[in-house]
Give the backbone structure.
Amino acid sequence: MQRKIPSVLIAIALLAAIPIQAAERAAQTHHVHLAASNATEAVKWYVEHLECKSIEARSDAIDCGAVEIEFVVRPTLGGSQGTGVNHIGFSFKDLNAKMAELEAVGVRGSGVRLQRFDDGATLRQVPGLFEHGFIFDPWGTRIELVEDSETLGFHHIHLHSADPDATLEWYSKVFGGQRAKLKRQLDGLLFGRVWLLVGSHLEGRLAPTDQRSVDHLAFVVPDLEAAVAEMSSDGVELLHEPTVPENARASAKRAFLSGPDGVLIAIVETAWAGVEPQYRWVAESNADAEPYTTPRTPWGEPDLQGIWTGNAAHGIPLERPAEAGENEALTPEEAAARRERGTLRSIWGYEREWRDTTLGYVKSAPSTQVAMVIDPPDGRLPALTAKGQRRAAAALDARTYRRLAEGPEDLSTYVRCITRGLPGMMMPGVYNNGLQIVQSPGYVAIQKEMIHETRVIPTVARPHLGPDLKQWLGSSRGRWEGDTLVVEVIGFNGRASYRESDENLKLVERYRRVGFDTLEYQFTIDDPTIWTSPWTGMFRFVKDDTQYELVEYACHEGNYGMTNILSGARAKEKLVNEPAGQ
């Protein structure tokens, strides 16, 4: 039976070896494939948080001591829990310090999720064994952290099975390994320094590992053809004959077989060196490929109507990063990595699957645009005025992580679910990037999904509101310049500031359809009290009428968020102000 091999996988290579009696099957554990949305960011995550080391000239591989980890790209259909490979394990000398470090990272929303036990603790002591806890990598793999001074670094692979004894016996018979008890308590197979453990699964049927975050295990043999022949004669189910995979780094072959409990297993030749990552989400809109004629409404105006999303623009920095050099655009791989970094920084209240911009879940590919600022040409904001510097310093001091909020007024209008202001409401985030435009003769209505605000903009000559009438979103007046909708906005109340702009802000927006599915948005900021000169930014929305719809924005329903923020501030004040010892 032939099995279609997934084009992208992540490999964890286990370097230790224990030979078995049959020469053809002198197997050693070799790798475990895990799924990740982006290989380079997965490398960085494991290097930063699990103390592995990068491998020279490899953007998809790390060395974890007893384990080599190779990362390649594929979205997952679920995490490792509930499959035959429940988790992998790492051992640290001071587990309490390590878990405290990871908990701090998770609180900041940087791609570390902790699993708490029933009492809320992140660590638990197993009598006679060791202290342990669990975290998840951002792509769904469950990771056990233990304090086992005898084996530091990569520690074990933990299988789940309805019949653990039979499963251990199967692996021992087929691949070898030394039967032993970890700390004289847990039955397992020891492959050099790496344990293969099996726990009981009592509820329901285990899901196959194929296409999950832990896709498969792998073993290496000196003679693949002979080993496959002998395994087949012993009744082992072969799923794929030995072949050299497409985009393999070496000529070594790989075969697949079916293990107990739906665990997919690969066997590879000695020279196996993994498969080059293949990126599925690298195509961008071809809006600039050829001239585009903007369609017209029945009354003859350029037609901008439809549902658009800013998902593709998520991750574009406002200013040009210094490391960008003279590059005019990122490579598709660099753009995907930047998008992934944005997702990892936002994993705090939601799983990655809830993020509209998560790689592999959104239809539009990440933009390769280097920065939003297009004028000044260097992509950097002009200097702040003296007033602008004072306002920026005051805003930094007022942020709640610097100073406790005394009341709702100390929190931003965004946190208070009032508005993101302009042009802040247009900026792409990790979710709720929908934009709907509806037109009628003389008017354009622009609705943004985040905080669910709608602007009704006249496009015929009409004076702005009087100088004494200020609004959160100012006074908007539009006009058509060829195929471009130009919107001039003044009359802000200054209470929904954009980067410390005040009521003197003059905003000019330009909406232009540059392709069937591409809407270009430019915004020019002119506030002489804050910046020494005007500046302009640009990014693009992608049309998505067939799938996307703007949903209700409930913000923090019932305003519980506000209650909790303020009550937490009062509790923290009490803690700080209480005399020592009370």
User: Anything to note?
Assistant: The longest helix spans residues 560-577. Residues 11-268 form a domain with the 2,3-Dihydroxybiphenyl 1,2-Dioxygenase; domain 1 fold (CATH 3.10.180.10). The chain is about 15% helix and 30% strand. Helices lie at 39-50, 95-107, 164-175, 224-233, 332-345, 386-398, 560-577.
